[in-house]
Amino acid sequence: MGGGLVVALVGVALASAAIGAYDIPLGDLLSSVRHRLHLGGQPLDRIGESVLWDVRLPRVVLAMLVGASLGCAGALMQGVFGNPLAEPGVIGVSTGAAVGAVAAIAFGIEVLGNWTVTVFAFVTGLFTVLLVYALSRSAGRSEVVTLILTGIAVNAFAMSLVGLFIFFADNAQISQITFWQLGSLSQSTWPKVLAVLPCAALGLLAAPVHARRLDLLALGERPARHLGVDVERLRVSLILVVALLTAAAVAVAGVISFVGLVVPHLVRMVAGPGHRFLVPASAAGGALVLLSADLVARTVAEPAELPLGVITGLIGSPFFFWLLRRTRSRQGGWA
């Protein structure tokens, strides 16, 4: 399955770089890439080079980074919580990031120029996760149920703040807020890629290290402790990894639903529950799904562009319902 994921990802990436309002033949695209790598080839004309290298490729790379981050974060969340419905938004990172982004837009904050919304979203997303964890601790420990319930409460409070900020926004700001909340990669640039890359790389490299302990945790907290797993330390480490991955993704792309929820289930259906393969495969699958969704968003209603979160929601929600029915009919539940 791993090889097939890589081949599919490369194929969709090439298609996404070539297809759009300004089509670029695949042969010319590969020739331009070889030219940039000093391996022969010929550059495109001035417009073609600008479209490919300044618009398409940053968007392709950013879609893969965001998708991989969300897919990997979803697999980790489901492993940490032992719950198939767990996804990164459970611990408040998405709504927390929305508070920062909406506040920056609604109140016209521009202290960091074009980076203000992104930085505010990232910082408030991380802060919200730390707040959820701190509020859920009792006697030096945190429990899954308490974490989930605390996350629900903090999410509700954060959404109320978002609604309050929108109340003070004007029509132009409301339009910008709505576009951000629905998710989009239309503002992709190489600086944004470089901003996300360290967080995504750190999280994606750290996640597989915990695969064996996640497999032991799947046996239950008490058996995992008897087998030498420091459950609390593992939970803290993985929540921080999930927060880093999700906050970076949401900060640059807005709120994108269902990728972190559905992709790990797809991988688990095909390859089983072992986290040694599940975590990296969920990252690759997330990159593939988001890149495909972005290609659809750009091309299905040309010259207009559909919000990316709308595409993932429209496809993800009925697919998840089918997945639920299929699993229950075959196994009698999620076991």
Explain what the structure shows.
- InterPro entries: ABC_BtuC-like, ABC_transptr_permease_BtuC.
- The chain crosses the membrane at residues 60-77, 89-109, 115-135, 147-169, 238-263, 306-324.
- One of its GO terms (cellular component) is plasma membrane.
- Keywords: Cell membrane, Membrane, Transmembrane, Transmembrane helix, Transport.
- Belongs to the binding-protein-dependent transport system permease family. FecCD subfamily.
- The chain has one domain: ABC transporter involved in vitamin B12 uptake, BtuC (Orthogonal Bundle).
- It has 335 residues and is mainly alpha-helical.
- The chain contains 14 helices and 2 strands, in the order αααααββααααααααα.
- The mean pLDDT is 87.
- The chain has a two-stranded antiparallel ribbon.
- Helix 12 packs parallel to helix 14.
- The protein starts with a helix and ends with a helix.
- Helix content is 75%, strand content 1%.
- It is globular and about 65 Å long.
